[in-house]
Amino acid sequence: MKTIALTIAAACGVALALALAPAGLAGQPVTVPLTPPPPSFETCMTVGNGITCDGSRIEDLGLQDSGIVCGSGAGTFEPVDHAIDYQHAIRFYDTNGDLVRRVIYDHLLGTLTNPLTGANIPYDAHNTTTDVLAVPGDFGSATTTGRGEQNYTVPGMGLVFQNAGRAVSDANGDIESISGHQDFIANFSGNTAVTDELCAALGA
Predict the structure, then answer these.
(1) Is the terminal CB of the chain with fewer CB neighbours within 10 Å at N or C?
(2) Which of 25, 204, 48, 19 is nearest to 113 (CA)?
(3) For 64, what's the count of Cα atoms within 13 Å in the CB-facing half-sphere?
(4) Which pTM was predicted?
């Protein structure tokens, strides 16, 4: 669930990605192997002093555990997360073909559902995730920065859960710094009270 916590939202992400996309298509064909190789939906070209790959896709993320626990006793449940991800991704490689930076823009349209009753809360999230590799080509050396906003709003109750701001994690996946209103991170760090209004809205 640390991935969800770090994939917090940035509303300008998709627009910026589209603005940057042409740069990845304006160069010459790639003549060196890329490490690690890009996903199949990205197109790669040699541009300036390196190689840029970019592309977009729409992906159904399927049913996922939310990591949130609501209710007690026989009424205990874990809300189920389901989202469609409208994603644009850009990779930057050096002249040797080794990855040095990756930026992923995610626009998520999803729902959080009580599996016992079917009650659900829709959400609209914009996430920007940036990986900077200290050792080119080695994802194990990456520092990851997540920015954005993910809100859960219920008619008559207003905002019941929010993940908004910035979080930075080191190569081991440990969080180095956070800013903003981070309910997911707070919950996973032991402050489960932040989910009270969300759980109540789902019928806990």
Answers:
(1) N
(2) 204
(3) 14
(4) 0.79
What confidence category does residue 75 fall into, taking pLDDT thresholds of 50, 70 and 90?
confident
Q: Alpha helices, DSSP H only, in 103-192? A: 183-188
Residues near 71 by beta carbon (within 8 Å), at least 6 away in sequence: 77, 199, 204
Kindly report, residue by residue over 27-42, the tens digit of the pLDDT. Answer: 688 989 999 999 999 9
For the chain, what are the domain ranges?
2-201
- DSSP strands (E only) in the chain: 43-47, 50-65, 80-93, 99-113, 120-133, 142-154, 158-169, 175-182
Dihedral in degrees, nearest 10, Cα atoms 91, 97, 98, 101: -20
Kindly list the distances between the CA atom of residue 175 and the CA atoms of 106, 111, 170, 196, in Å, as whole numbers in the listed order. Answer: 20, 26, 6, 24
Give the separation between CA 102 and CA 146, rounded to whole angstroms: 12
Q: Which of 16-20, 145-149, 164-168 has the lowest mean pLDDT?
A: 16-20
In 3D, which of 108, 12, 95, 8 has the Cα closest to residue 60? 108
